Give the backbone structure.
Amino acid sequence: MSYLNRKLHIITLITILTILGMYPSNIEQNVEFSASQAYNHLEEYMELSPIIPDSPSNLQFRSYVTQYLEVNQWDVEIQNWYHQDANRTLHNIIAKKSTSETPNGIVVIGAHYDTRIFADRDPDPSKRELPVPGANDGGSGVAVLLELGRVLDIPKTLEVWLVFFDAEDQGGITGWTGGLSGWCIGSTYFVEQLSGSDRQQIQVAIIVDIVGDFNLNLFKESASDPKYVQQIWDVATDLGYSDSFVDRWGGSITDDHVPFLTAGIPAVDIIQQQSIEGNIFIPEHHTTSDLIEYVSPSSLEKVGRTLEYYLETNLSTITSVSTTSHTSETDVPVPSFPDRSLGLIIISALIVFVLIEKKSTIKDLEN
């Protein structure tokens, strides 16, 4: 083998090793949101349902979430406070995770986990004082957040908070005041307790609620921050989910994003506002029929994968946090290095190496 050929061999090997050394994490962390895993969490949720504020099932749910997320390397804290009007102690679950000691921003992903005390929209009047099971209205958002807790590869620029809000769904019931006329009590308290520094660091809060319908039909919620809404819907379209993430603006919903907006923090509400049959939200909303058989694993996956890709690509471009506004990150998404491209580069390099080796062998034989 000539000196030149040996030199080419060495250069090729160095190239291959350099590529492998630069991108090991993309191979190791290529885990995608799983519909079945999310649905498993929903099944666990329904085993505890109804999850009424300050009830034994509420405590069991908090234990389940805490143990699961801690195993997946999240720092979990319980935010407790006494709600005097309802004479109950309420509990938000806050899980935080970052891959850097100095992230440039915080993204909050939130869902309420309480179920409504009374099924006051049930078509059967005799059932209207029974609790709502909450498979879709409560459970679907919880399932998405818990599966994100397993699969999310958090960019080094970000810290992500998964927040499970208590007492979102008790509005209009005697004794439940505060929040937004009795609604969104947990998220209102959460925002009120944020430090000034955290308020400045939060880039956006994304709320996930009622996202499990078999005919998932998500309009853009009109009070939500339009820039972030469009970014999320664009990702959903790129993933082939435009049938569910509908390119149409809907109405304004009283939900857990509103306290963030009131505090000047950009927020998005991902929620089904209307079923394809024309029902408000879903046909089972606030009835005893809000059961797991009406929740589609595929719908959970559509929402979960959209958020997974959005957080791992679009929001990874944050470089600084403005102290006067919440629009400091660039609007141009920079996707993470695709594993498929990495594989093609490695294969190409190996082919080059083999061809050089073959050519060298032939020349040696000829000589």
Observations:
- The CA atoms of residues 273 and 279 lie 9 Å apart.
- The first helix runs from residue 3 to 22.
